[in-house]
Automatic annotation (TrEMBL), chain A:
Keywords: Electron transport, Membrane, Mitochondrion, Mitochondrion inner membrane, Respiratory chain, Transmembrane, Transmembrane helix, Transport. GO terms for cellular component: mitochondrial inner membrane; respiratory chain complex I. The chain crosses the membrane at residues 46-65. Complex I functions in the transfer of electrons from NADH to the respiratory chain. Accessory subunit of the mitochondrial membrane respiratory chain NADH dehydrogenase (Complex I), that is believed not to be involved in catalysis. The keyword Ribonucleoprotein does not apply. PANTHER family: NADH DEHYDROGENASE [UBIQUINONE] 1 ALPHA SUBCOMPLEX SUBUNIT 13, NADH DEHYDROGENASE UBIQUINONE 1 ALPHA SUBCOMPLEX SUBUNIT 13. This is NADH dehydrogenase [ubiquinone] 1 alpha subcomplex subunit 13. The keyword Mitochondrion applies. It holds the Pfam family GRIM-19. Its main location: mitochondrion.
TrEMBL record, chain B:
GO terms for biological process: mitochondrial electron transport, NADH to ubiquinone. It comes from Cicer arietinum (Chickpea). InterPro entries: CHCH, NDUFA8. Belongs to the complex I NDUFA8 subunit family. Keywords: Disulfide bond, Electron transport, Mitochondrion, Repeat, Respiratory chain, Transport. Accessory subunit of the mitochondrial membrane respiratory chain NADH dehydrogenase (Complex I), that is believed not to be involved in catalysis. Complex I functions in the transfer of electrons from NADH to the respiratory chain. The immediate electron acceptor for the enzyme is believed to be ubiquinone. This is NADH dehydrogenase [ubiquinone] 1 alpha subcomplex subunit 8-B.
Amino acid sequence: MTEALIRKKPGMASVKDMPLLQDGPPPGGFAPARFARRIPNSGPSALFMFLTTFGAFSWGMYQVGQGNKIRRALKEEKYAARRAILPVLQAEEDERFVREWHKYLEYEADVMKDVPGWKVGESVYHSGRWVPPASSELRPEVW
Amino acid sequence: MASAVDASGNPIPTSAVLMASSKHIGIRCYAENLEFLKCKKKDQNPEKCLDKGRDVTRCVLGLLKDLHQKCTKEMDDYVGCMYYHTNEFDLCRKEQEAFEKKCSLE
């Protein structure tokens, strides 16, 4: 009701004849707004980008190769050291093994002395090669 | 491990000692090592290669004693570093250089 009293115009028959109260543009309209795309065609060319990428990749792969060379040299040093000391360790182990093996053969001869036709320490295989003994009896202190 | 030598001054052939002197062993005991490996290749039986094995052990233990007498401190440092870093060569370069400089570069 108060709206009609404020915005009335003389000779108005109903509320529907009230003057308009709208939010609108300023007189003369708004300033023009640009909405067109303006993506420039400047910057590195496709060939330049490709060559830069390819160059960076190649340099990286070259560094990978150099790093692998260094790592391989380190590994070779370790393997060469192991190869150098292998005979000493094997010789020591052979001495220990032979001592234990003779003790075991004595034990076997003692156990099987009443069995006719038993050859102490004979190989159980027919290949003729020497095969390491399969039993775990030789190192009772480990087990 | 207190030191690399036992009571009578012989270096104990532990892994640290052997790896530390591996370059010297590889050069000075090359002939004995090769003979032992050739014997092993022919026949794997330990009893057949005992004499060559004794040659190898004699050569290496003699070499260790010789190295230890010639450059005691450098060898002890290098062996200690190897023991600390569990035989990692790359972590003991300084001690390795000092050892090889003092004890007749191979």
